Amino acid sequence: MDQRDILRVVTNEFSGLHTKEEKYNPFPWYKNMREKHPVYYDSKQGVWNVFLYEDAKRVISDKDAFSSKKSKELPLQNITNIDPPDHTRLRSLVSKAFTPKIVANWEPRIQDFTKGLLDQISKKNTIDIVEDLAYPLPVMVIAELLGIPTSDRNQFKEWSNSLVAGPSSTEDIQETINQKNKATSELKEYFSHIIQEKRKKSLEDIISVLIQAEENEGKLSAEELLSFCIVLLVAGNETTTNLISNAVYSFVENKTVWETLKQDPTLIPNAVEETLRYRSPVQVLPRRVKMDTEISGYKLTSGQLVFAWIGSANRDENKFSNPEYFDLKRNPNDHLTFGKGIHFCLGAPLARLEAKIALSELIKRYSTISIKEGYQIDPIESSFMNGLKSLPVIVE
Ligand code: HEM
Question: Which of 264, 282, 283 lies closest to 328 in space, CA to CA?
Answer without folding.
Answer: 264
